[in-house]
Amino acid sequence: MIKKSSKVLEPITSILLAFLVGSLVIVLIGEDPLSTFRVMFSGAFGSSVNISNTLVKTTTLTLSGLSYAFAFRCGLINIGAEGQMYIGALSASVVVLFMPGPGFLVVILALLAGFLGGAIWGLLVGVLKVRFGANEVITTVMLNYAAQYLIQWAVCGPIQDPNSNAAQTVMFEDTYWMHYILPGTKLHTGFLLMILSLVFFGIFLWKTAPGFGMQIVGQNNQAAAYAGISVQKNTLMAMFMAGGFAGLAGAIEVLGVQHRLLKGMASNFGFDGIAVALLGANHPVGMFLSGILLGAMKSGGNAVQMFTRVPSSVVDLIRALVIVFVLINVLSKVLLQVKKEKGATIHG
User: Fold this and answer.
1) Which residues pair with 188 in a beta bridge?
2) Residues 7, 261: Cα–Cα separation, whole Å
3) pTM assigned to the model
4) Strand partners, 180
5) Quick one: DSSP state of residue 258?
């Protein structure tokens, strides 16, 4: 019971500390923190439109966080959600642009293409690790740049809007947009897909044999190999699924929000997703809540920029501090565990 309570209190403590430091920064600027946070809250939840904007951002953030969490549960560090999002967005856009047909069918095919595009990009990382022992942190970061330049080439070349000099495709026909859930808002069906993805994540990891095996690999790959569980197979599966969820996030972003492919469409959602996963302890419920929090800070940050003299970068600072405090907590646990193991070795 105490362990469960600490898992809840730790992220709350990190959030409170981050807002405390943020308050001090706002005071140094010469503004009132309470007034600023009121504007932020209103910008995120003050109306049905604001709430929908927050949930739209929550959708992309949470799916990106799910990408990190899936790999992490298998003992892998996926820093490549940003690149996988780009590839997913590109794959979905190609379907919309070159496979005309009934809107509902095209959207489904585009979402599948987005998932598979990101999954294959993630699988490439798994293959490099299994075949050559390449560190996934390095390869995912490198592939982020490769994906970014690939998108830049595509939207400035073969799929660029012929009537514009901007690095973008033509606007998709509205029949190929994701359906809006609430009239008068931008909340789309991608939000429901995100919920279903979280449910799948929880069921797969804790209710199925492959998910259980994946977690064993993540906890101790040597023990997993001794028990007959294939480390290589689980590594490939984890990176395939991790890349898939990030690719789905990219597809939803272009189909449900931007309605075209842009050069910088990812907008750091891939890296912010890592924050969602860390703050949510890589758990479905935790990631959903942390996704709402960070989505609200993104939406509310725009209101702070518009209606106060506090720059939106202060909100970005608070978001970054949340992660810093979470990482400090994680690092302290790791150091404590190492100290205990050394002590046990000495006394043994």
Assistant:
1) 180
2) 39
3) 0.92
4) 188
5) I
